[in-house]
Amino acid sequence: MPLPLAQVQELRDRLSDRFRPWSRSAQFWIRAVDIYGSYKVCQLRAGFIMDEEEREAMWEQQHEIGAQKMYSLCSDLGGLFLKVHEIVLQLTHTRSRFVEQAAQILGKPDLAPMAWVKRLVTLCDKAPSTPIEVVREVVERQFCKSFDEIFDHFEVEPVGSASIAQVHRARLKSSKTDVAVKVQHPGAERLMMVDIRNMQAFALFLQKYDINFDMFSATKEMEKQICYEFDFVREARAMERIREFLHVTNKKPPVMVPRVIPGMISREVLVMEFIEGTPIMNLGNEMSKRGIDPGGKLAAMAKQKILTDLTLAYGQMILKDGFFHADPHPGNILICKNTEATLLDYGQVKEMPEDLRLAYANLVIAMADDDLSRTKEGLRELGLETSSIVDNELEELFELSLRMFDTRLPPGVTVLSPFAEDSSLTKVGVENFPEELFSVLRTIQLLRGLTVGMGLRFSCAQQWKPIAQEALLKAGRVQDVKSKSQSFLRRLF
Predict the structure, then answer these.
(1) Which one has a higher pLDDT value, 88 or 274?
(2) pTM for the full model?
(3) DSSP-derived secondary structure for 205-252
């Protein structure tokens, strides 16, 4: 006797759901091997070409091909790979005018070729959204109330959608102000765990055969943070903690943090105040609309204030409290009235161990003072293990620390490519990099991207030095602070 149509469809859905992780893994490896293999072939061919311009043209063509393949991988698979594209862009700075909004933020290509940046930046708004019918089901299940009991108004189209969740603008019953409703995509967590396992295997391969850096630790930290992102109750607690910390620490907080709506929190739905603002990627366009020259003095002053405020907020979170917003990419920054910045999305937060926080404070002061010996000691105290021994070890270690942990650039330089042949990272290989520091590294890269993209010269280490000194003094490490000051005075006199 044939099965009813409904049962046949249910069976198909179950089989599809069961085999989807295998299909997804196969798609990833086929595409990843294709991209990697094409670059290795190009590398082999380039070795036989003596003319530099011809060799450069070959690489440019390869980058165009690789960019399209990477775009297809991220766009078709979505999920974790949309996050990977965010990180690639975040660790990349471009000053070109390929996309005016991106050019305001991303300086020059550091980790990815220009062709990749030009292609991947168009993915910023491509995350798929969950249908409103499913959103209603998730909200009602999480709050045990009907949709109409909760909301007076709810916008069907999300104001934003990312790999884990989407956000809708709404108004609660008996409320006069709008709220932001963050709703998790059903099934996203399971697929992301499949993706991260594949990424970890690929990272192990790359660091063994091609890249002289501990990439596996980066993927382990990514796994930890992504697991946290699926718990909105944890995110709400983190948001309130950081909001309270910045209010207590400053007369006026350097950045705004959305307020969580009490009683409207669950693991898959989070309701918070809605903050009006311009995404920082659109800052240049918004200035032009208001008759402000994005390259003029008024714009430069506004950009300087935005950068200073963001840097101060991160410096206080990292060095003073050790608990900080760990998902710093341009999509999480809004610019509001009077150039006030708002930090969004607290799904990824990081709490640094006390010894690591103080070790980092020690390194910040060493970098700010250009103290090469102290920088070496600071890197070792952080737990960084290097593999190469070079004649000018102190200089290379100092350059390595600046590339990773400061926003300053040498005079006339607008690009720091960590994997270039003359990079300190290729001369001093990093065999072990503490997982906890990757979130700090991402923060520095965001700030450097803003610095270059806004046409400014800025050292976060120099701005953070007083905060670092305060942290060390509070911990009783007075000698560390004194030694830094004495070293600085010896160089002056």
Answers:
(1) 274
(2) 0.79
(3) HHHHHT--B-HHHHHHHHHHHHHHHT-HHHHHHHHHHHHHHHHHH-SS
